[in-house]
Amino acid sequence: VAPREFCLFNANEKPFIEVKEKFEGGAKGVCLPIQLQPGTIGGFELVLYSPQTNGFKFTNANTLVAKDTFENIKSDFSSDVQIHANSRRGEVRIAKLNTINSIPGSAFHRGAINLSELELSYHADPAEILPKIETFVVSYGDKQGKSNELSLQPKPAGLELENVIFAEEVSQGDVICPLSFQLKNTGDSSLH
């Protein structure tokens, strides 16, 4: 019997080895499936839905996947990672984990994170730079991954009542009572 070497590197498959004698009716057998473990961390795949709105949690599918050096999902990855906009002009917030520009390793489940479930949002600074095309970067040590391009839109303009000021004195019989309102624009766009 000649020795054989195998190089198996697709951790997403469970290969098996089958052997049989060359002549008809000879002995044959199959091993149990071989469980492959992912290799060392190679980088990240960051896929973000476009467009998104500044200051709001990202909608639709937004995922982060740790990859090994063979592009397999690194299912045992559980380290903290940093995340930021490539322009570095704002903050990436993860509301459910109460973090800014970082994601704890505990958020990874079998090497992947559903960022929408964790309420990922981006807060551009200053908002006047919007709308714009942005990419995001995830890093762990010297390993990183860059997202697809994302169209980042300004928050729509909106009014919020901050204060109502009434006249200090009103006489009985006054038909007109002066009062004033203080309003605030809660959006990134100006009101017309």
**What is the overall number of helices?**
0
Q: Strand percentage, roughly? A: 35-45%
Evaluate the radius of gyration.
Answer: 28 Å
Average pLDDT works out at 88
The strand order across the widest sheet is: 9-6-13-14
Question: How much helix is in the residues?
Answer: under 10%
The assigned structural class equals mainly beta
How many E strands?
17
- N/C terminus separation: 85 Å
Low-confidence stretches: none
Would you write up a description of this structure?
The chain has 192 residues and is mainly beta. The protein has no helices and 17 strands. It has a four-stranded antiparallel sheet, with no helix packed on it. A hairpin with a 2-residue loop joins strand 13 (136-140) and strand 14 (143-146). The mean pLDDT is 88.
Question: What order do the helices and strands come in, and which of them pair?
Answer:
Elements (H helix, E strand, L loop, with lengths): L17 E3 L7 E3 L10 E7 L4 E2 L9 E6 L12 E5 L4 E5 L4 E2 L1 E2 L8 E3 L5 E5 L7 E3 L1 E5 L2 E4 L3 E4 L5 E8 L12 E7 L7
Parallel strand pairs: 4-15
Antiparallel strand pairs: 1-2, 3-5, 5-10, 6-9, 6-13, 7-8, 7-11, 12-15, 13-14, 16-17
